[in-house]
Amino acid sequence: MTNTPYDPANDGAQMTFDGRMSYTDYLDLDPVLSAQHPQSDAHDEMLFIIQHQTSELWMKLAIHELAAARTQLQTGDTRPAFKMLSRVARIFEQLNSAWDVLRTMTPSDYTRFRDSLGQSSGFQSWQYRQIEFLLGNRNPAMLRPHAHRPDLLATLEAELTQPSLYDVALQALAKSGLPVPNHVLTRDLSIPHQPDPIVASAWRAVYTAPETHWELYELAEKLVDLEDYFRRWRFNHLTTVARIIGFKRGTGGTSGTSYLSRMLDVELFPELWHLRTDL
After folding, report:
1. CA–CA separation, 7 vs 103, rounded Å?
2. What's the fold here for domain 44-166+178-278?
3. How far apart are CA 91 and CA 57, in angstroms?
4. In terms of pTM, does the model score above 0.85?
């Protein structure tokens, strides 16, 4: 045992960074760590801000991965796409854990700074909206909360002109020779896909003989896994809000828990869930 202080330079660690890239430089941490601006003196407002900011960072990564996975699937490069979809599921697992931290805030804690939020609300998250559009839950009416930012509105409008992740999966079904109706493949991309019995039959064929359609089978399970984690995130959002504000309206004017509860009924990949009953 020695009392000599450890010097990492002796093990080769870089200790001087004048004119060189450092950890803080690479991650651009100065603006990131100075982006928290509480509007009150309430202790828990910092928790509230950081939880939402970090969630937005994870959502940025989810969009990065989902958009790339869609491109890979369109070109038939399924293996990298599967890895990306698995990563997005893990991202939503991380987002789920964030609710556990926020739930340490009590109703009394939140009341101390809630008025400081004004009309701001997670309902207005344009990245969350883009994720929903990417996954197929498309509603042009949801563009309106972003109309005050032409740049964000343009991004979301552009997303509505592209096939959703599920649209691309259905295209893969059709390319494999399984029957997918033309009206499904050529539908208006700005609105959600509606469950179709012929599509359901095609997916049933995949699940009945997975060894014959292995890549489609794995794609389907990656999508189900992703939606499973996404649904858990929505459920945890609902229970966190109910725990903290009860049945009060949201700061952005939504009905709060009632609105979030309705979102739990949304199915992104409906045929993939319904076939489990039919098999």
Report:
1. 41
2. Methane Monooxygenase Hydroxylase; Chain G, domain 1 (1.20.58)
3. 10
4. yes
